[in-house]
Amino acid sequence: MGVSGSGKSTVGGLLARRLMVPFLEADDLHPAANRAKMAAGRPLDDEDRRPWLLLLADRIREATDSGQGAVVACSALKREYRDLLRRASAGVWFLDLALDRATAAERVARRAGHFMPAELVDSQYAALEPLRPDEPGLTVDAAGDPQVIVDAAANAVRAAH
């Protein structure tokens, strides 16, 4: 979980390979209307996100029911979003990729071909509710080396499960 540019796709892909489970990019599940809205520089609101989060929860349930599990890259910016995803499976665990605004904006500005423009980074920080101590997961500095982050996450996941 984390704001755009925090490394969710990079770290998530590496972690999925390390844990030998499928990787799901939640951005791929956004409906065309959400993508168009963000591409036009307008942030999503809770109403925009709800159907997307419900679809993602279904995918999490499917991964759990298969017995295989998965690593999912999803912003999960608010506690209520994470609560919805946790209701999909008791085993949902979050890796909070914490990153400062300037670095996130710089990373997003460098990306080519992504629907999320750098001017929306501030709106993500406005919505962000960092992972709380009572939520299952780990918060890491996303400015660090992705391999080091994956090592810490893999160890924490194994300890939690």
UniProtKB/TrEMBL annotation:
Family per similarity comment: Belongs to the gluconokinase GntK/GntV family.
Name listed for the protein in its UniProt record: Gluconokinase
CDD domains listed in its UniProt record: GntK
SUPFAM superfamilies reported in the protein's UniProt record: P-loop containing nucleoside triphosphate hydrolases
Gene source species: Streptomyces triculaminicus
PANTHER family with a match to the protein in the record: GLUCONOKINASE-RELATED
A biological process from GO: D-gluconate metabolic process
Pathway(s) where this gene product acts: Carbohydrate acid metabolism
